[in-house]
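Shipment paperwork, digital attachment
Item: protein structure file
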Amino acid sequence: MTSLRVEINLGKIQANARYLVRRLGARRISVTGVTKAVCGHPDVAEAMLEGGVTGLAEARIKNVVRMRTAGITCPISMIRAPMVSEMEDVIQYCDASYNTEMDTILKLGAAAKQQGTSHDVILMVEMGDMREGILPENLNDRATRVIATPGVALRGIAANFACMGDITPTAGDMAMISRLADQVEGACGPFVALVSGGGSANLRWALGEGSTGRVNDLRLGEAILLGTDPVTGHPIAGLHTDAFALFAEVIETSRKPSPLLTRSIAPEFGMLKLVRNDDLRVRTILAAGRQDTDVSGLMFPSGIAFIGATSDHTVVDTAKSAVPVGSEMKMGMNYSALMRAMSTPDVAKVVHGKPTMNGKCQGLRDPTLPNAGMTPR
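Attachment content:
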């Protein structure tokens, strides 16, 4: 088995999704599973679907194509505003997309008409995260223009929280989203079917005791995958936090003083020697580095301390215990570390607990193989 790998426990992902779907369902909120951190890995997507999510959301069209090629037929939304260069593919492979720019929406409508279909548009509203979003005072006008655009249909509105600003949404923020949905209906007429209130950072609010108003959907990635709150990084009660683990091989382990100092022994020749101190520690080097993951987001076993990393090496302090060369170290990952490890081809992905397919993913094929084919929606 390849030493540098991510091991994925699909049963725990499915259990996390099921728990959140059940808890939020009691509050009349559905769950959209976000697969961007795992690059649209079909097995992970299927585990989310087996857990009861109503659809999937992705940020990159190649990941959507990967899931469609694997046979996943559920609704998939493009969660990042589509690029002009990918309009045709977005229409072909996605049921809906989150948008802010009218020029983009017009091009989506034209592409949808050319393909003889209609595409759902969800308007993203700026609620203080300072990433993408339409200012609330401009929302009615934008919605009116979407309704008048051939080839697209206004499905709903959405907001982001804690993506750029790490700001936890308040009850007041969520009440405002409900008011905005009411205002759009009053100004434009058509019913706003989807009011997507945010992501994993909204769970504390959504699972509280206050009214959820018009909010009827959350887009959950980190909570399902890692069982953690993206704002605090703390575990969420009732969820598994170890569905993913990174394994790296030990390539060197030796006792070295800390720190190593240098001293010139022949100044005229510029010769140097290492000056040891008496604090010998075991330094272990792992065959993984910044090219493979976000090393700052790794969680090491008890008693192991991170020292530093370069592109291909990670150095840890194992105190006075030598770790054999050729052995492996298992590490947990935060969202950033997981995202980079899953997107790196040099890191193998090993799946455990593959669920029984329900018809969405029968006959999986590797989309990187020649003639793998694509299945449009």
